[in-house]
Amino acid sequence: MSVRDIRVRSEGGIIVETPNGAELRFDPRTPGGSHTVLSHAHADHLPRESGSVICSPLTARLAEHRRPNCCLRRAEHPTIELLPAGHIAGSRAALVRGDRWSLLYTGDICTRSRDYLEGFEAQSADVLIIETTYGRSEYAFPPIEETVRAAHEWLAAEPTRPAILFGYTLGKAQRILRLITGDLDRRVMTTASIEEVNRLIADELDVEFDTELYDHDKGLRDDDILVLPSQMIRTAWVERLIETTNARTAGFSGWALDRGYRFQRGVDRGFVLSDHCGFAELASVVRHVDPDILYTCHGFMDAFARAMTREGFETRSLRANQRTFSDFV
Questions:
Q1: pLDDT > 90? residue 219
Q2: Per-residue pLDDT for 324 more than 50?
Q3: Residue 24 three-state SS
Q4: 285 with 183, same domain?
Q5: Alpha-carbon distance 43 to 133, whole Å?
Q6: Which residues have a Cβ under 8 Å from the Cβ of 313 and sit 6 or more positions away?
Q7: 22 and 127: one domain?
Q8: Boundary-marking domain end, from 257, 272, 287
Q9: Three-class HEC string of 216-282
Q10: Is 34 exposed, middle or buried (0-12, 13-18, 19+ CB in 10 A)?
Q11: Pairing status of strand 51-54 against strand 72-75
Q12: What DSSP element (H or E) covers 317?
């Protein structure tokens, strides 16, 4: 048996056909095949239809909350081991063991431990399927302490103006609340959507989020901090709120490394805060896994594939609808 007998393609998720005829689906739009693995509960990974999925208990709860019309039944299988992925609460990589082969699907990963998140630790496998969101060499994230210090200095510079901080509802918002605003002697408010995610995570992981629910009638005091979902940045009511309260705005993202980030997002300041691996961390994962074949997916998958090929790894990027190994050549 050769690892080339394991067929991998990107088609509404990552689809793997094993030598014994089983079909594994990773983060697919439609659960099915022999087994389906759900790595985490971000919207771009959640199935759009009901079905049985292998995932962590917290991911199952978050998925139920985020897709209430989609019934996902949590399952397990002895050949599929879930590993902490370090990306967001509940996120898992999957190590699959066959008779004479092994396959590691990372999903979105971060090797840096942060607060209540345990960083991803690579394990050896014959086949590695790795996400490469930041798979170019310029993406090297600063230590979290540097970001926290810079954000605190920015907030302290004008303490009599309210601040509105933007981050993803699931993942980034919790990092902002725990790492950026957690130790500040200021009222911190957020939306019902973030509060509900906070509650699910707090119940499962025994952590606390010290926030109040934002009320339009109460408005913002001069020294308040309001944490909002990223997608609200350019909404009319937020723009009116900024204008009427003279609030400052900041976005938190790995993309804040890009020079044009704050102009593209329409915020006063951008802070680098990523829940993914940077380029060097991704390369380190590949070296630790030491696969016979490496597949890259998402983000800068072609650039990262070329870099790993130069290191001697047999590497292919998973573009949509590629079906056979020869399609990658």
A1: no
A2: no
A3: strand
A4: no
A5: 16
A6: 286, 291, 294
A7: yes
A8: 272
A9: CCCCCCCCCEEEEEHHHCCCHHHHHHHHHHCCEEEEEEHHHHCCCHHHHHCCCEEEECCCCCCHHHH
A10: middle
A11: parallel
A12: strand 315-317
Phi, psi of 16 (to 5 degrees): -125, 125
Q: Specify the DSSP element, H or E, that contains 81.
A: strand 80-84
- Rounded distance, CA 64 to CA 72, Å? 7
Q: Which domain holds residue 300?
A: 3-138+276-328
Same domain assignment for residues 160 and 247: yes
CA 196 – CA 219 distance, rounded (Å): 21
Q: In this structure, are 183 and 242 located in the same domain?
A: yes
Domain of residue 63, CATH code = 3.60.15.10
**Domain match, 94 and 178 both:** no
Q: Report pTM.
A: 0.94
**What is the per-residue burial (b if ≥16 Cβ within 10 Å, else e) of 213-248?**
ebeeeeebeebbbbbbbbebbeeeebeebbeebebb
Q: What CATH number should be reported for the domain holding residue 252?
A: 3.40.50.10710
Alpha carbons 138 and 257: distance in angstroms, whole number:
9
Between CA 214 and CA 43 the distance in angstroms is 24
pLDDT tens per residue across span 47-62 = 999 999 999 999 999 9
Strands 225-229 and 248-253: unpaired
Say yes or no: 123 and 195 in one domain. no
Integer angstrom CA distances of residue 278 from 139, 214, 225, 262: 5, 34, 29, 20
The per-residue pLDDT for range 151-196, each reduced to its tens digit, is: 999 999 998 999 999 999 999 999 999 999 998 999 999 999 999 9
Give the whole-angstrom CA distance, residue 226 versus residue 229. 10
Question: How far are the Cα atoms of 35, 90, 116, 178 from residue 202, in angstroms, in the given order?
Answer: 29, 12, 10, 12
In this structure, the answer to whether residues 94 and 194 fall within a common structural domain is no
Residues 60 and 185 both lie in one domain: no
